[in-house]
Amino acid sequence: KLSIILIFLILIVLLTFGETTIRIKSPLDVYTKIYETVPFYRFVNSTEGIGQDYIKELLSTTLESTNTNIQNFLNAPMVFYSDKNYSVGELFNPNYFNLLFDMIVNSKGIAIYSTEYEVFNEIFTKIFGANKVSDDLYTLEERNFTVQKNDDGLFLNMAPTTYDNNSKGLVSGSLENILNENKRWDFYFTVDSRTLKATFESKDYRGAQNNFDLTILENKKIFGEVLNIEKLDKTNFSAYFENFLMPLDDESKNVIGFIANSIKEEEFIAISSQSISNNELNLFFETSIDTYKLKEFAEERNMEEGKVGTYNYYLWSNQSVENQIYLYFTEDEFIFSNVLPNRMNVYLSEIPRFKNTKFYGEIERKEGLDNLLILDISNYLSKNFYGSLDSWIIKEEYDNDGMYTVEMKIR
Fold first, then answer.
1. 291-340: per-residue pLDDT in tens?
2. Is 122 helix (H, G, I), strand (E, B) or coil?
3. Is 207 a domain residue?
4. Mapping DSSP to helix (H, G, I), strand (E, B) and coil, where does residue 210 land?
5. What is the pLDDT of residues 27-53, one digit of tens each?
6. How far apart are CA 248 and CA 330, in angstroms?
7. 209 domain-assigned
8. Do 104 and 52 reside in the same domain of the chain?
9. Whole-angstrom Cα distance, residue 403 to residue 86?
10. CA nearest neighbour of 147 among 181, 165, 172, 121
């Protein structure tokens, strides 16, 4: 009984969009296929993770409806409508109870295609704290919720409708502003091989149209818990660099300008690599640099130099600076990093090539990508929740014959 009721509460993870319509085929399927199957959600909602045991206790001591009635209610399709501009970051937030409460009080209409009216009444009043004024009127957070009932179900603050059962996935619908340009997006969620996949598609949105092929990076050593991969124009190098390492003075700006002028290619792949658990930062640039000019520049400033594997390096920042920055470089790549040479040597010698990482095979689109984000949260979960879990998030962006697509996977 408790696990079934819990389905209704955790739907908020799937209901966080602005200008949104969300169609849910079956909350029971959502719970079974996502929260009991996908490792990340299963772990986060367990007692070893964040845990929501207090909600289970609340439900067990509060609700009186039968298991059959509750299951009938949660097997029914539900559609939520909202004007609130929810952030993408809220999309996968596991604090489902608070988010669902927020979604309810900020909704402009909710359709529940179930005639289990008593189950709805119990959940709405006893769990969410709504006040039942009459059979067709509730209040919650200073808002009125007018309820209409018919043979199709019950409808909050909206006219009765029939359910349009043509969705592609467990959850589907439309939203706006996913990439901050107020464009319309259609979306659907599926689960395959214990991986949650969220697909967002827009005919109106246009990306950077500066795509790259991931196969170029197959044999590279790329490391870090947060990897953001994109194609960069040489003229934008300084602005990109300053997003991560702000210049301290005019001399620092001149140094950045020198590097930009020393890059040989006009376009190249840039990879920002950051750590969740510490302050490590690596900026990979997949392009050659004029090493003759670089050597002259370093010698004039008496920079510390050395070698790590096949990479040469200079201590690029002033030695008196607390967070020192190194420039590691080969013939076809250079890396700005705050990782010390001895630690960098460990990374470059022990990290597998990109094509052999656990992420590479999960990336469906390896050609024509506009952006690729990889977030490895395994180490974070292990350190903070003492759980051994191989968990990650991957986001791919690309244009698919005029349909801009953003695919997100969570494992």
1. 999 999 999 989 999 999 999 999 988 766 667 899 999 999 999 999 99
2. helix
3. no
4. coil
5. 888 888 988 888 888 887 776 666 655
6. 27
7. no
8. yes
9. 23
10. 121
